[in-house]
Specification:
The complex is a heterotrimer of chains A (about 150), B (about 650) and C (about 200).
Chain A: H1 12-15, H2 17-22, H3 32-54, H4 59-81, H5 89-113, H6 119-138
Helix pairs in contact in A: 3-4, 5-6
Chain B: H1 28-32, H2 37-66, H3 76-111, H4 119-138, H5 165-191, H6 204-236, H7 250-283, H8 290-303, H9 319-347, H10 356-378, H11 381-387, H12 391-421, E1 423-424, H13 427-453, H14 470-500, E2 502-503, H15 538-543, E3 544-546, E4 552-554, H16 600-616, H17 619-638
Antiparallel strand pairs in B: 1-2, 3-4
Chain C: H1 20-46, H2 56-59, H3 62-87, H4 91-122, H5 130-161, H6 170-196
The chains are: A mainly alpha (about 150), B mainly alpha (about 650), C mainly alpha (about 200).
Chain lengths: ~150, ~650, ~200
């Protein structure tokens, strides 16, 4: 059986060497062991969510905890299973743009409708979490003028 | 659907197809199975122009009905169908596909590629467009055309009298066409540029196409959801917009305008791109402030997502929402204004040749500015309360969409006609077309500003006498017939040119970008050798260098592999170019492998209207449609993109 | 002089070195964020409306749906193991994991079908009120996406059996995988936002 820890498909190391110099984790390539660990983390997170559903957690805290956990699960699948952590930044930017756009415009619509309880909380959370995460994915250490 | 295109070398490919792979290069079958971006561009162009004539006829009927008070040309019901279909046609079946025609034909040429990233997907987009348009129009004989306005506001759109079923399904089909086309062009521009063509060396038209592609990719899904929700209400009795069951019709407006506002930038940016190409060529000066023009285009695309509710000022969103959107709308005028100043600065001091492409580009600038100014007045919310739903708004959007997009597209038609056909359209007739159209256009839509402020509402099939609207309505109708005449003049020009047009040669305008460096019309493989690009306007720099006093000095073409004598491309006009990293390109006698024709894109696209008819009339067609789509997709996925 | 060009699909000749198809798939997935965002927002808008008739919150069976969610999450694991298998040339394992993924997906869909049938029998249909309408539409769209994914997985399986899926074409598995994982993360959001959070406390 071939050595599974080595990159078999092209990762950013082959396609985006400059990016690799700036972000070393882009060079790696997880193997089945790491994937199983991610899956276990996902299962545990889901278990915690369901346990809290039945616990007597105050509702606003419950909502906050669930949002954080599902954000974590989402990130685990996107970054590891979808390989976005190890691939070229271009894919990250593409996906992050769609995601950020969707979150922003729909948040605005729901706020206009008054459909969200504690909208201010969500707006603040949005700026504190989503914007920095998006910026992290979209960041470029070179200006736009470089040859893409 | 994952489609890995051509077979890697060394893998045995066993044929399983029932029919042989098409190979024709001439005749009707070759057009039906084409995957060549230039042919697909022509198909888009001709089809879109046909729809332009139909949409124009609808407009003439509308204007005939409104020429005088208490008109009897059409019934009220027919009138509602006419203005709905006129809007749908002009937006989805004319301006967008005409832009697509130019994206298709010119983008690969401008970036030095041989075709787009996904040639069969490209063909599929065209066929889905054609079938979607035909499906929409079949409504006239299948229960009546949609009559609820192109914007389909609920709950009116859910009344039986509006019969919006074909609207929902037709736009869904067209949406699929545009979405996959947008993905195709985005990937093409990211991934298929010639060596040396960095993003900031691309022609502005390519940049605008790039921005438009992302606008489509992100905006169409929102419309898709709205249309599905509308269709489910109409066909399956759901409750998305049924107030009695707890719904909120304003949801439709948000979903529609979240799409609809980026859509208007989708409609105008390509024309702006064309103007940005034409002005430099006919002023013999580079575009003023290229990076700024590019960034303004990106800014417009980005900010366009923050203004949608300015179409909803009068629906009762509340003062906070209204103010926020009013502000964002005022801000978005800035990058647009920046572009206009850059265009004017391009012209200033240039060696200007007033040929027809330039005339239309100048017309664009003037008319679009007028439309933009009325747009700014809408951003003032209290003023908009008076303007909304009146002819003042009709005036605004026709100035930007006709005076803007259509004039810009005609500029492109006259500019690129010689490249696509090898012949020049007549200048004299072109100028007649331009002036007739400009005068007719202003006579038609100028007075609508006045009518709107005098209180004439939109979407009324007639009006009583004695309101003071009679005169300007009459003038407007006369103007519309002048526009029609100008189009006939254009068609005459086309016919004349096909018969007796002057041969154009590769570069009749002494232009700047790569498409002018190859023959007119281009060979199927576009470039004999893929060029290596070293600057913006590579074709210009291949022709001219700067002399000691900054004057233009033609570069000597000389021997095919002689040293480069000027700044710019290492690409010499005519025969030789340096081969550059194309692997084993040393004349083993291999031909250039272009993607092979295929009929599967057409089959897959054909399944869409069949499925749609099934959803309206008969379960058998649903099954049939799904099977057709699957056959098309599987055949497509299992054949290689290029046969050896 | 005509020259021979390498097919772009070999990854060597693109401006970025990235695969066209992979770029296309990510662009498509980005657009799907807007699609599901609209459906989820519709549900969130209508979730608290005062309506007559049964609403989803009243008929949920959370333990049942939790198991379904777990099944779909595990299918993402089997999917990525299938990709790892073809990338190292193990075609037997590829087929095993592809089938496993498809089976898990089919389990999820069957679970949904059963769940919805129960809801309808209890008296909540897509026409009952706006909350039910938006619930069934959102989950129905998701289920349709899963179904298309299952079709693609089985197609890959068939192609592999037929010898049409060599290591050089591993990208096809990668692309189907990306689609599959996306459908999974949409469910992560739906499970949280539609099932768990609206718990009537």
């Amino acid at each position: 059986m071939a050595d599974t820890s080595e990159a078999v498909g092209p990762t950013a190391r082959e396609t985006d060497p400059q990016a690799v110099a700036e972000e070393p984790e882009l060079a790696a390539h997880p193997g089945p062991r790491q994937y199983v660990m991610v899956a276990i983390a996902l299962a545990v997170a889901t278990g915690i969510e369901v346990a809290w559903y039945y616990a007597n957690v105050p509702h606003p805290l419950f909502v906050a905890l669930l949002l954080v956990l599902s954000f974590l699960k989402f990130s685990l699948v996107v970054l590891w299973f979808m390989h976005l952590r190890f691939d070229s930044r271009i894919f990250r930017r593409l996906f992050a743009t769609g995601l950020a756009l969707a979150l922003s415009v729909y948040l605005i619509v729901l706020v206009i409708f008054g459909a969200l309880k504690a909208p201010w909380l969500l707006i603040v959370a949005f700026f504190l979490i989503v914007v920095p995460v998006t910026a992290f994915f979209l960041r470029s250490r070179r200006g736009m003028g470089g040859a893409v | 659907m994952a489609t890995v295109a051509s077979e890697p070398e060394g893998v045995a490919y066993r044929r399983r197809g029932v029919f042989a792979r098409p190979k024709a290069t001439t005749g009707v079958w070759s057009w039906i199975t084409t995957v060549d971006h230039k042919r697909i561009g022509k198909l888009y162009g001709v089809t879109a122009f046909m729809f332009f004539l139909v949409g124009g006829l609808e407009a003439l009927l509308i204007r005939s009905q409104l020429a005088r008070p208490n008109g009897h040309v059409v019934t009220a019901e027919a009138y509602n169908e006419l203005f709905t279909m006129h809007g749908l046609t002009m937006i989805f079946l004319v301006v967008m596909p005409l832009s697509a025609a130019f994206f298709n034909y010119m983008i690969p040429l401008m970036i030095g590629a041989r075709d787009v990233a996904f040639p069969r997907l490209n063909a599929f987009s065209y066929w889905a467009f054609l079938f979607g348009g035909l499906f929409l129009y079949s409504s006239f004989v299948l229960g009546g055309a949609p009559a609820g306005g192109w914007f389909g506001y609920a709950p009116l759109s859910e009344q039986p009298a509006s019969h919006m079923h074909f609207y929902a399904l037709g736009l869904l089909i067209l949406g699929i066409s545009s979405t996959v086309a947008a993905i195709n062009f985005a990937v093409t521009i990211i991934n298929m540029r010639a060596p040396g063509m960095s993003l900031m060396r691309m022609p502005v038209f390519v940049w605008m196409t790039f921005v438009v592609s992302f606008l489509l990719i992100f905006a169409l899904p929102v419309l898709t959801v709205g249309l599905f929700e509308l269709f489910f209400d109409l066909r399956f009795g759901t409750n998305f917009f049924v107030v009695a069951k707890g719904a909120d019709p304003v949801l439709w407006e948000h979903l529609f305008w979240l799409f609809g506002h980026p859509e208007v930038y989708i409609l105008i940016l390509p024309a702006m791109g064309i103007v940005s190409e034409v002005l430099p060529v006919f002023s013999r000066k580079p575009l003023f402030g290229y990076p700024v023009v590019v960034f303004s285009g990106i800014a417009i695309g980005f900010m366009g997502w923050g203004v949608w509710a300015h179409h909803m000022f009068a629906v009762g969103l509340g003062p906070v929402a209204n103010s926020a959107f009013a502000l964002s709308t005022m801000f978005i005028a800035v990058p647009t204004g920046v572009k206009i100043f850059n265009w004017l600065a391009t012209l200033h001091g240039g060696d200007i040749r007033f040929r027809t492409p330039l005339l239309f580009a100048l017309g664009f600038i003037a008319m679009f500015t007028i439309g933009g100014l009325s747009g700014v007045t809408h951003a003032v919310v209290p003023a908009d309360y008076q303007q909304t739903d009146t002819y003042y708004i009709v005036a605004h959007f026709h100035y930007v969409l006709f005076g803007g997009s259509i004039f810009g597209l005609f500029s492109g038609i006259y500019y690129w006609w010689p490249k696509m056909t090898g012949k020049l359209l007549s200048e004299a007739v072109g100028k007649v077309h331009f002036w007739l159209m400009l005068i007719g256009f202003n006579l038609t839509f100028g007075p609508m500003h006045i009518l709107g402020l005098q209180g004439m509402p939109r979407r009324i099939y007639t009006y009583p006498s004695g309101r003071g609207w009679n005169f300007w309505n009459g003038v407007s109708t006369i103007g519309s017939f002048l526009i029609a005449t100008s189009i006939l003049v254009f068609l005459g020009n086309v016919v004349w040119t096909i018969r007796r047009g002057k041969a154009a040669g590769a570069d009749p305008w002494d232009a700047r970008t790569l498409e002018w460096s190859i023959p007119s019309p281009p060979p199927p493989h576009n470039f004999d050798e893929i060029p290596v690009v070293a600057s913006i306007d590579p074709h210009w720099h291949a022709k001219y260098a700067e002399g000691p006093e900054g004057e233009l000095v033609p570069v000597v073409a000389g021997g095919s592999n002689g040293p480069d004598q000027g700044p710019g491309a290492e690409h010499h006009p005519g025969t030789g170019t340096q081969a550059h990293g194309e692997g084993d390109g040393d004349g083993h006698g291999h031909g250039i492998h272009m993607p092979s024709p295929s009929y599967f894109p057409l089959i897959a696209a054909l399944g869409l209207p069949i499925l749609a008819y099934g959803l309206l009339f008969s379960t058998v067609f649903i099954v049939d449609g799904v099977i057709t789509i699957l056959v098309g997709l599987y055949g497509w996925a299992l054949e290689p993109s290029a046969e050896p | 002089m005509a020259t021979h060009i390498k097919a772009v699909e070999h990854g060597a000749a693109t401006s970025t070195g990235l695969s066209n198809a992979k770029l296309g798939m990510w662009a498509f997935l980005a657009s799907e964020c807007l699609l599901f965002g609209a459906l989820i927002s519709t549900f969130l808008l209508y979730r608290d409306r005062h309506v007559t008739g049964l609403t989803p919150q009243k008929v949920y069976d959370i333990p049942y749906t939790s198991v379904s969610s777990f099944v779909l999450l595990m299918s993402s694991l089997t999917m990525v193991l299938a990709l790892a298998a073809i990338q190292r040339g193990d075609h037997a394992k590829l087929r095993t994991w592809l089938v496993a993924t498809a089976l898990l997906g089919m389990t999820f869909i069957s679970g949904q079908v059963y769940e919805f049938t129960r809801f309808v029998q209890d008296g909540m249909t897509i026409k009952t009120n706006v909350i039910a309408t938006s619930f069934f539409t959102l989950t129905g769209f998701h289920g349709a996406h899963v179904t298309v994914g299952i079709l693609m997985l089985l197609s890959l399986f068939g192609m592999s059996l037929d010898g049409r899926l060599p290591v050089e074409r591993a990208e096809a598995v990668e692309l189907v995988g990306l689609y599959w994982h996306f459908v999974d993360i949409v469910w992560i959001v739906i499970f949280t936002v539609v099932y768990l959070i609206p718990k009537s406390s």
